[in-house]
Amino acid sequence: MKLNGAATVKAGLVAMVLAITGCAQPPTEQFEVAARAVEAAKPAGAPEYDGEDFAKLEQQFALVKDELKKQEEVLSIFRSYTDAERQLKQVVTTGQQVEVVAAQKKESAKAAAIAMEKEAQAVMDSAKKLMVNAPTGKERAAVQVIQQDLEGLEKSLSAMHQLIENGDYLAAEIEGKAIKEKGSAVSGEIQSAIDKTKGKKPRAHA
Q: Could you report the per-residue pLDDT of 67-103, keeping only the tens digit for each?
């Protein structure tokens, strides 16, 4: 009777363990929370302004997906989602950190783009003032070309402003630098044309 009793208890324990193990369910809710954390980092500007950390975040999430897939291929009574749950928590934490950092970097890029727009506008204004005194005699043809360049820069400046309005601050700053460089060159051309009409030696411009 003792042997039979021990066997019965052992069988009961085995059945209980199998039942508990067999009840392991995929961490669906945790997975959805992690997925939202990854997605939330995108509108904050993570892909553009914190690309390296965002790439690591996506890699972390991909590893969790692999772990979940691996468990699905295991016999149900042997499945364990402990590692996946731990990894999902890490994805959520990392996602929140990436979102905050990206938002900060995006805001800094916005400030830089706006400052660059002001600098580009100042260069344009300077070139326009010089254009008022541009010659109309022999240098007229050259001045007309310069005028066309100024009109092109005006369009570029408008395009830069639109980039800022659209939140594309990195591209806007690059555009602004190009406008400043070209605007300075145009100012130099205008001044050279003015100097020629006055019989002066053209100035050297950087």
A: 999 999 998 889 999 999 999 999 999 999 999 999 9
Buried b (16+ CB within 10 A) or exposed e, 129-142: ebbeebbeeebeeb
What's the maximum distance between 2 C-alpha atoms anywhere in the chain? 125
Contact 111, 167 (CB under 8 A): no
Token output for 89: 């928590």
Task: State how far the Cα of 137 lies from the Cα of 139, in Å rounded to an integer.
Answer: 5
Cβ–Cβ under 8 Å, residues 179 and 156: yes
pTM of the complete model beyond 0.90 = no
Q: What's the rounded Cα separation, in Å, for the pair 189 and 143?
A: 9
Q: What six digits make up the tokens of 31? A: 């997975």
Q: What Rg, from alpha-carbon coordinates, does the chain have?
A: 33
| pLDDT tens sequence across 7-35 | 554 555 445 554 544 557 999 999 999 99
